[in-house]
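User: Hey, quick favor. My workstation is busy. Could you predict this chain's structure for me?
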Amino acid sequence: MTATHPELEIDIADGVATVRLARPHKRNALSEPLVEAIGAFFASPPREARAALIAGDGDHFCAGLDLGEHGARSPFEGMENSQIWHRAFRHIERGRIPVVSALHGAVIGGGLELAVCTHVRVADETAFYALPEGQRGIFVGGGASVRVARVIGTDRMRELMLTGRRLPADEGQRLGVSHELVPTGQAEAVARELAAKIAANAPLTNQLILAALPRIADMSSDDGLWAESLAAALIQTTEDAGEGMRAFLEKREPRFRGH
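Assistant: No problem, here it is.
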């Protein structure tokens, strides 16, 4: 499949779309056109893609905003730029397909904002995390104040932004930045296995997990329980739900068709 940006490589095989940042000479730093290309893909992924894997070329996942392209902007222009990132990353977080990320090397600033949009995060032992905005005289603008803060807590995020400290892979694992920590060089292989496993799930169940859970988390307890009941009632009427139960009782792998 042809990518919409020369530094974004996209390939689809066996139901998994691999979306690869291909700027190793820049440690995969994100330019505005590259962010827009990422958003465009996840806004309307091909129907044959039932899950996705985001990875980075070279020694690093993503070193964040490309500061070389960060020129002076008016406040209005700055808000517009930030909202481009917000829209793109929302297409990942609240999109149609589950997304797994393979993290290694630098996962910094905007790279961390990209990572926490993904639904399953696999890191290897080379991964390190940082929010160096305090040392750059800028502020997070790609959603970190919401998404990163929800993962590691506002108190820890504030400390990282103030000090510029690098968070090593093992500490990131303890704080929930990664869901799985694997030996050096194995993040992409493990992430691909997980993406393939997720792609084999019932598609509507995957979509409800992505769409319902974060919304329920923002509801009151009573509203959340009502929404959960609605989602459960909806899914049990599908053909895939019947197939899943039959496969369990017959001790075989289910054959989901997306119905």
